[in-house]
Amino acid sequence: MVGEKGTNPVARVVIHSVLILGALTMLLPFFWMITTSFKTYADSVQIPPVWFPAKPDFSWYPRIFEQVPFGRFYFNTIWVTVGRTVPQVFLCAMAAYGFARLRFPGRTAIFIGVLAILMVPSQVLLIPQYFEMVRFGWVDTYKALIVPGIFSAYGTFLLRQFFLTLPKELEEAAVIDGCHYWTIFWRILLPLTVPALAALTFFVVLWSWNDFMWPMVVTNDESMRVLSVGINSLQGVYTSQQPLLMAGAVMATIPLLVFFLVLQRFVIKGISFSGIKG
Amino acid sequence: MSLAKEPQMMLTGSAVKSALRTREMLWGYFFIAPVVIGLFIFVVIPIIASLVLSFSSWDGSSNMNFIGLDNFVKMFSDQVYLKALRTTTVYTAITVPATIILSVMVAVMLNRQIRGRDVYRLIFFLPSVTMPVAIAVVWKWMYNGSNGLINYLLSLVGIDGPGWITDERFILTSIMIIAIWGGIGYNMIILLSGLQGIPDTYYEAASLDGATSWSRFANITVPLLTPAIFFVLVTSLIGAFQVFDLVFMLTPVTSGGGAGGVLQDATRTAVFSIYQNGFTWFKIGYASAQAWVLFVIIFLITMLQMYLQKRWVHYE
Amino acid sequence: MKFRRLVISCIAVFFALGAAACSSGGGSGGKGGKSGGKVDIVWWFPAKEQEATMKKIAEEFNKKQDHINLKPQLNAGADYYTKLQTVLAAKNGPDVMWMNGPNFPKFQSKGFLMKLDNKVDTDGVSMTNYPESLVKLYSKDGYYGIPKDYDTIGLFYNKEMFDKAGVPYPSDKWTWDDLRSAALKLTVKSGKTASQWGIAAHLSTQEVVYPFLVQNGVLPIAEDRKSLKYDSPEGIEAVQFLFDLMYKDGSSPDGQYMTDNDPLQLFQSGKVAMIMSGSWQAKPYYDALKDKVDVQMLPSHMKSGNIIHGVAWVGNANSKHPDEVWEVLKYLGSKEVAMLQAETGTVIPAFNGTQDAWVKSMPLNLKIFIDSTSIAEPYPSAFDPEWETPVNTHLTNIWLNKETPSDGLKKITEESNKVLAATN
């Protein structure tokens, strides 16, 4: 990693100005989301927009708990997210290792087939996929929310790219030692891909957490609802109250941010593993 | 004797080798099996179903008529869809390279030991976790033609700014700017994990050789980052060709619920058209056919990238 | 090594949880089945603001009889019809559901909806209990829907802004000319840009364009839903009138401005003095402006006119329990249910004579919405939903000043008629 010693003060000022400018625009919508959740209804519909409500309205948060079983939504969302993420990262790592390192007939063709899955717009798959859930009798169950979300072409492709960057000598030595492929995968390569596994984990968590269309279509009962669907249901048919919606969004986002911070620490610690090579 | 023995030894050698080959092959299938079988059941079967539907005029009702290639023939005279494909191509050609260049820059900056690095990383990722409605509201405020932030800043230097999202000549550009802005965070995560996989020893060796920071960037960082960049390129391209949500969010909709006019003509993308046909108009067969044409385009471009990667992607 | 242990424990926890979830998931049972000897009837609606009322209605119904278990389920707002289409195409979905006018023809024409005729005739339900235009909206070759509620359009105005400008409040005798001159007087301009407008002539077919067409004797769609005639001199005059408010008088913000700035919000922030809006807007306007806001009948020109739209309850044609579905529909169409809805002040119930509670729910002149039903045409709909695309496309262009009203309306007439003629 490039240390501070390599940077001159001018470069540092330039870097920070660019970053701060970018950061401000990225912060703005989030900031708006938070302040809006404390606006009175009248303040929330002003033109030009009110950025700092003069009289903050704290009633939207308690109101959400009155209107929807938020605790149940949290539980469902966490459960679906864990249920998708843990097996997905693991299975994608396995497949990625297979595609990146082992030679078998049809490897390239199958890999291109996996990649091609990403290219079909999900909108046209919604109806056939729903038919499948009906056929399986999975509508309104956790199975429908979790199982189809486990298998990922994206994750396989991502991890394959990272396995390809690892030096081959590592395994060649192991093969000569008579090591099992499973052992090579599990003990030698997997620990080296921790940053990539962490990145994939984060994406899968993010997407499962925010996934909307699929959970909305395959569940009907309120007890099966996840956060994204629950928050969307706060929107009325005729009118919507932005502050209520934003309060819901803030509450749904906070666990995700905490998770991101924790995971980031873990990724940075993971680097020390890569020190062994070279 | 010795002459006879040698081929024998070679034979045993190749037998061992082929046994090893078989073992490797079986393990290979074992490793990929769970994902491949899962994808087959939950994605490939529905994909095949949509392919079948693309040859039908299915509208959701009980009777499904197969009409051969009619949907595809119709598409080639459907000016709206052809225009949508052109718009999508322009969108992809601009947003993908711009996002990748900026993401690489940001990732490299945030891979240094700079002050507040963790905070920056978190903030750059915020757009990905912020509610889309909030993003739309804030950008609409910035783009507002009469009292928006951007035109205010422009007026300070004496420029009379346009209606960024109310003028059909600017609206696509305005949407592309948001796409680039929002895409940096995603790509940054992948590129950062790629950067962290680069061993320090490489840089240390280069430092001993007296390499400048630019040459370290050009000769070590970039080549070792190419597999991650390749991934970002392929997936961003696929994502850009399938752009929908952003367009849906920023193209003005009349309060009657319909949308149209010059603004929608300027921003209608392929998937927008697919959605419109499939869900607004119930023309599921035709929507599937449109999706398959889009698929073929994306597939060909991705194959080209796979072929070209040998020239620039640096694998171990 | 630590890492590996972490992964292993994650997997272990996952499988443990998985086992727990599977065993609990099994208990919830399939749908459309029976629970405790009762038939489950699943009932969908998309309106969060009415959820409490719907739950109360279901509770009442379940108390009244002993063989049906009515299960109300709220299904997310804007994507309700996308989901409905998906589940109905799979011959799945709710037994009883909420339907609106624009979506009715396309769902009906796919054979998704239960025809109610023989039930209505034999079971003593009178369709005369509801406004005729609403019943018409949900009929094709017979009745398909039981009207639930309705909405009409009114002219909302900001009393404070009228007082300040010394302009008398709108009356129920107002003509287009009165509207126009009042709007001009209420507009405050400083140089080229206005800081306050008399009116927001926003691009909403339901709230602005169609009512103005009706007021000039032009139907939004012909009786048989097979043609329209917007390019008549009267049609052009109506749209030209709205266009002139924006681009000639400047008493309304123009199309660009109203694309950048939500006109409903402009009214709620006191930037415009008048706006044509549906009855559903009464509550949010009142919440934002309190006693500053009131509402009046729309102005008239050739005649007075309005647009009525309403939601209906429909049955799933593929329901396993058609008799029970009818029983539920019958209850939902009853006066009792109408009264329950009216008390909450959220919607105008469709059952004739139950609207008083709604009128009294806010201190505004809400009676005009009830009075307007007699002059209202139903919201237009046709069996190929694509017919409305040219309407939206060219109206948007007119509002953005990219096409003249007469050119745009000619194109709408030509293109929409082509779509309408192709359907049966």
UniProtKB/TrEMBL annotation, chain A:
<dbReference type="GO" id="GO:0005886">
    <property type="term" value="C:plasma membrane"/>
</dbReference>
<feature type="transmembrane region" description="Helical">
    <location>
        <begin position="12"/>
        <end position="34"/>
    </location>
</feature>
<feature type="transmembrane region" description="Helical">
    <location>
        <begin position="109"/>
        <end position="130"/>
    </location>
</feature>
<feature type="transmembrane region" description="Helical">
    <location>
        <begin position="142"/>
        <end position="163"/>
    </location>
</feature>
<keyword id="KW-0812">Transmembrane</keyword>
<feature type="transmembrane region" description="Helical">
    <location>
        <begin position="184"/>
        <end position="209"/>
    </location>
</feature>
<keyword id="KW-0472">Membrane</keyword>
<keyword id="KW-1133">Transmembrane helix</keyword>
<comment type="similarity">
    <text>Belongs to the binding-protein-dependent transport system permease family.</text>
</comment>
<protein>
    <submittedName>
        <fullName>Carbohydrate ABC transporter permease</fullName>
    </submittedName>
</protein>
<keyword id="KW-1003">Cell membrane</keyword>
<dbReference type="InterPro" id="IPR000515">
    <property type="entry name" value="MetI-like"/>
</dbReference>
<feature type="transmembrane region" description="Helical">
    <location>
        <begin position="244"/>
        <end position="263"/>
    </location>
</feature>
<feature type="transmembrane region" description="Helical">
    <location>
        <begin position="73"/>
        <end position="97"/>
    </location>
</feature>
<dbReference type="InterPro" id="IPR035906">
    <property type="entry name" value="MetI-like_sf"/>
</dbReference>
<feature type="domain" description="ABC transmembrane type-1">
    <location>
        <begin position="74"/>
        <end position="263"/>
    </location>
</feature>
<dbReference type="Pfam" id="PF00528">
    <property type="entry name" value="BPD_transp_1"/>
</dbReference>
<dbReference type="GO" id="GO:0055085">
    <property type="term" value="P:transmembrane transport"/>
</dbReference>
<keyword id="KW-0813">Transport</keyword>
From TrEMBL, chain C:
<comment type="similarity">
    <text>Belongs to the bacterial solute-binding protein 1 family.</text>
</comment>
<keyword id="KW-0732">Signal</keyword>
<dbReference type="Pfam" id="PF01547">
    <property type="entry name" value="SBP_bac_1"/>
</dbReference>
<dbReference type="InterPro" id="IPR006059">
    <property type="entry name" value="SBP"/>
</dbReference>
<protein>
    <submittedName>
        <fullName>Sugar ABC transporter substrate-binding protein</fullName>
    </submittedName>
</protein>
<dbReference type="GO" id="GO:0030313">
    <property type="term" value="C:cell envelope"/>
</dbReference>
<feature type="signal peptide">
    <location>
        <begin position="1"/>
        <end position="21"/>
    </location>
</feature>
<keyword id="KW-0813">Transport</keyword>
<dbReference type="InterPro" id="IPR050490">
    <property type="entry name" value="Bact_solute-bd_prot1"/>
</dbReference>
